[in-house]
Amino acid sequence: MLSSFGISRGPFSYLIMLLIGIGAFVVIGLLSAQEQAFLQKSVLVDGKVTSFVKDDLNPKSISYAPVVQFITKQGYSVTFTAYGKEANPPGYNVGAVVKLGYDPKNPYNAVILGSQNNTYMLLGGIGLLNIGIAAAGLLLKWGK
Does residue 66 fall inside a structural domain? Predict the structure, then answer.
């Protein structure tokens, strides 16, 4: 399978794939720990999607980030753009209520909760795929 991509099927290539797979799970762990640290210090509130901002950094793939408004526990209205939630078509409708967390010291440092789920699934898939191929290759190679 790997040789069709011009990659050697020796034990070294399988070990590299195994390391990539393990690395993907390490990144998931680090991202999860960072998210948990933020959530421990953040205040949880509901926000409302008010509009979208066109994110055209990549001219070949235009996406839209939701603009969210919420009221802090002190009663201040805050509006922020949820970069990292860009999608095309947008993942939310205008008027949608979303759960979010914000830093009480800097309410503009806010995130829509669950915004890392797609990243976790992608990294998990990459990790499982690499570990599966590496394990199968190593078992076949050393099982002879």
Answer: yes
**Number of domains, the chain:** 1
Sorted by sequence, the CB contacts under 8 Å of residue 121 that are 6+ apart come out as none
Which residue from 103, 100, 124, 102 is spatially nearest to 112, judged by alpha carbons?
A: 100
Distance from C-alpha of 144 to C-alpha of 130, rounded to nearest angstrom: 21
142 domain-assigned? no
35 located within any domain: yes
Of residues 80 and 11, more confidence is placed in 80
* Residue-number span of the structural domain to which 13 is assigned: 9-135
| Rounded Cα–Cα distance for residues 118 and 72 (Å) | 27
Which residues are paired to 67 by β-bridges? 51, 81
Q: Yes or no: say if 80 and 66 are a contact pair by the CB < 8 Å rule.
A: no
**Residue 89 located in a structural domain:** yes
Question: Is pLDDT above 80 for 5?
Answer: no
More confident residue, 110 or 6: 110
